[in-house]
Each structure stands twice: as structure tokens, then as C-alpha cells.
Input
Amino acid sequence: MIIPLTTKANQSKVMRTAKRLLVKNNVEYSWDHGVEKNMVNEIIMAIERTKLFLQNEYHDQIRTHIQVVLFSSEKAMEEYLQINKIDGLTHKQIAELSKYPALTISARDSNNRPEAIILRNINKAHAGLDKVFIIAHELAHVWQAELAQQYNFYEIKWLAEGMADVFAANVLEQELAYQAIWLDIAKEYLNKIWLKSLHTPKGFQAEVEKYNMQLVYRIADLATLSLKRNYGMEAIIHYFSTIGVTHHADKSFKNVFGISPNKFEEQFSMGGLNL
Output
């Protein structure tokens, strides 16, 4: 899950919810007193594993400064989000976001350089998702932002979230296993939750609230897998890269895949799943 932060976080306030600090390989980790050190080490290993996969598989690396903030409760994560006021979000929306097992906030530091703040509630997880998967998903969002030169890479929301999940499954070398899980969860809803309703961030969140997080993400995952099987992961990566040039996600989609996103969404929801 990715959200933009336009107001720089007040670091002295942040430290009220993230008491302990560690810096390793240019990633800054902080956590509250309820988080055990062995969990911190697991998160560090997940970050390092994902970065190594990105380097070996795609000959790329994450250059953005990353903060990882770990919480022991939903309440602590919600407090952090309330303190670091996110433009346009209500208290109710922040309460909903705090229910996610992880979030990535796309921000800029005091020198206007790109920065990513990954929030992880260590006591919350999605059914069937590995801890490494959750962290790899969030790092994929950081990579997407870099590919798109920090432009609105999440404009086609289902593809931003779906690509992050497919990437995470590949980090674990378990794409086919996850595909089976995703199909089992979503098969009865493929013709009920229309892909076009997941196009915008607002529409995506509305469907999450209407159905549930698991179902909506699985639809996005299957649609992304369909793209990957037809065009390759390299084409999806290229799509994010071209957003930084066109500044228009729909235009980039059409340029890369040869079909408008609206047409693809319609075909997918009408039974055009090709896995």
C-alpha cells in the first residue's frame, strides 16, 4: 500500500512512537518498546533479501533513502499517522489505513530528496503471506517511484499494487503457489469486482471498504499476472519507467501494452483472464 506525504514529518514527534534506532546499509530502522529485537532482525533480513533479488534479477538497486518504522500495535501505527498529518486524509481514513499490515509513505526530506517511510505493524499479517512478502511488496513501491521519477506511479492503482505483489512472490520464488492462492480467494468475485473500479486510488479504497482487502488485492494480482504472462515482467517495469516521461499513466499503459487500460480492464472482467 502506497500513500503520498506532502508535509515533512516532525522527527521529534515521530520518535514518540518509534523509540529505538538502528542504521544498517543506508536503511534507518526504528521501533517501539513492544517490538522484540528478533523481529527487527527478521525485517532487516527481509529488506536485504529483497534488495539482493532486485540487483541480481533486474540489475537495479534502490537509491531512495528509506526509513522503516515498526509498531507493536494498530494503535501505535495510527498515532504515527495522526502525528505525521497526511494531506487529504480524515481521521476515519487514517484509522482504516492503520489496519494494514504495512504502508509505504512516499515523501521528501528537508533537502527535497525522495524518501520512503515504510510502516510495519509486526502483529498484523495477511493470511497466507510470508513476512518477507510483505516487506518486498513495500520495497516494490519504492522501486516503482524511482522508475517513474517520483511521478504518480500509483495512478493505475490496481497495477501498482498488483505489480508489488507479483514482485514479492518472485522474491520468494513462489509465483505459481501464490497464483493458486489468489485464484482460490478471488475466483467467485472475478465478475463481481470490476477491474475498472480499482483503477484510481479512491476507487480501489472504496472497493476495499465495500468488500475486503484480501479480495480486492487478489483481483489486482490476477490482472497483473495476466499482463505479465502476455507481455512479460520487463514490459510492466517499462510501463513504470515511461510514466516519468509521459507524466500520464494511461498513455504509458497504451504505449507499452498496445491497448488502453480501460479496454484491458473490460476484457479482464469479461472473462479474459489469461494465466
User: Anything to note?
Assistant: The radius of gyration is 18 Å.
